[in-house]
Amino acid sequence: MRVRSCLIPFTAITAIAFATQASAQTMVREQKVISSAGARAMVDACAAWAERNHVTLAMSVLDWGGNLIESHAMEGAAANAIDTALLKAKSALRWRRPTSEMNKIVRSGQNLAPTFMHDFPQPGALPIVVDGEVIGSIGVSSADGEKCAQAAIDAVFKKPGTPPAP
User: Fold this and answer.
1) CATH number at residue 70
2) 42, 61 Cβ separation under 8 angstroms
3) Does residue 12 belong to any structural domain of this protein?
């Protein structure tokens, strides 16, 4: 009888300990974060793409929270190029899609929210997706910016052996 009376509180304490541990795990999640080295490598890859294609531009890389990690303007870029790249990157991050898609949605009248939310839905920015998770975005001042951004994402995050993006 005495063993049984001790066993009940022990069982309850054990159950509470496991429940607390399980609920603590559900309260925390792991977040992938783009490093400053990764952002710099993306900027370098985008700049290399721009040089090969004879384009002068600026680019900005944001982390998952919208914080600027890296920004670069090539020699001869327009005075507003960095601002344009940053605004595009913020828009791609907020809507978690390429800004060219947002441009089509706004122009068709399907969704005008980006315009009154002070976004810049002009083609030139992509979200950075790693293992299905948006970890940031890259915005490029050029109209062909999404090609440059994709080249940068592929150069830094593409797994070896996967075919290049179209």
Assistant:
1) 3.30.450.150
2) yes
3) no
